[in-house]
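Anyone? Bumping this.
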Amino acid sequence: MADILEQLAICIESGKVNADATYPPSMKGQDGAAELTASALQQGIPPKDILAKALIAGMSRIGQKFSDHKAFVPDLLMSAKAMSAAMEHLKPYFESGEAQHLGTFVIGTVQGDMHDIGKNLVGMVVEGGGWKVVDLGVDVPPEDFVAAIGKHPGCVVGLSALLTTTMASMDMTVKRIKEASPDTFVMVGGAPLTSGFAAKIGADAYEPDPQHALNRLSAMGA
Amino acid sequence: MKTLAAELQSGAVLIADGAWGTALNRRGIEPGMCPEAWNLDRPGDIRAIGEAYLAAGAQVITSNTFGGSPFKLRMYRLDQRTGQINRAGAAIARDIAGPDRHVLGSMGPSGQLLLQGDVTEDSLYAAFREQGTALEEGGADAALIETMSCLDEARIAIAAVRDNTSMEIVCTFTYNALPDGSHRTMMGVTPAEMAAMAVEAGAHIIGVNCSLGPREMVPVVKALREAAPTTPILAAPNAGAPVRQDNGADMFPETPEGMAEAVPELAAAGANIIGGCCGTDERHIRAMADALGQTTAGNT
């Protein structure tokens, strides 16, 4: 059992989606995340073990490499693709309640900002870390974040901004969220941001990359 | 008019313009407004920004069309007006530059990731073709394919311009500094990989812009020079990284003098065109032009 889970973790880390996938070239012709997840289930390995010991483990390794500048956006995208191929097989167990998300993370790019690549990467890694991710998209008005918090009580909110011009919009969004729901934890990120900025606008945390965002969520023990 | 690359063959160093987004902010553009739409709606402002750069000593001017890709304009429901917006941007730049100065038609990234299947190579090619041909029609004599991070996207952009226009091609990538002192784009591309791709695809000038401040950019210019010994290089640093002030305004920390000090270093590293990206304005460009004048005077 340990073997197949480790093999699956390697598929996730390397971005090996399925047997037909030609990426990465070194794993051509081998089973990928889809096949290995199906076999692990057939062998009777509990879904929660597949999730924790293979999928989350693999995503965490690539997330850490990304954080250390040893892997880059394409690597993370391929890993996320492998992760979602595996999750397709686990979906029924989430729906039945046999497997559970660690929490809900509501994410979006603030109003006035149309950039989605950074936000998507964070969403992928957090989802790969076992969280349910609710993606509100780009150019999201503050009211939509507030509404989503109402719909997903206890969620953590992640705000993204790429432009120096939309940092002001992030400021306003944090204030509206805190007025409506003072206890909601708000995390911010994006190229022009710093922890100093996050503190000034009243956000609870700034994280520099997807893995740090996930680490922060895990540390909260939600 | 000689091509830019031909002009630079003599070893001359030219000064380009500074930031456009930063200038538009000062003129009241709000988050959620399309900066390129101002080419049609507020041409007086666009003209004034360019004129200030020319008056400051810029010898090369960029069009206000960075986000003029139909993929970007679609977010503002303006993609049907791609040709019109890009033509207008290039025409304003040509009008103020006159017939003898070079107009670089700015073409930024599409915001779409090929690898993720957001877009096909064909539709990306078509988008760059549409923007590139409109820039040429408006009067640009060179395309500035800038702030790129992905080899495939830049290669497609270069091909679209090369195949469908007679513009000269400048291609610049944006780099982050890694803890070990090396540089990569967010997609993991090194300066050497970018130089090899761009030259092979048909770029006449390569370079680096945005993300890094002026001194931080010197090692990237060196790496490009090493990888492409005979290709002219454009360098357009930011005025450092923005810092939030207590009053809520964001400030770029690099002063005009600080930018100017880096000009000789950038030139010595191999840069042939030096301009400014985010946070720079006409004061930075003026100081840089002055510094270059002194450097050149010192050399002769």
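Late reply, but here is one note on the structure posted above: The first strand of chain B starts at residue 14 and ends at 15.
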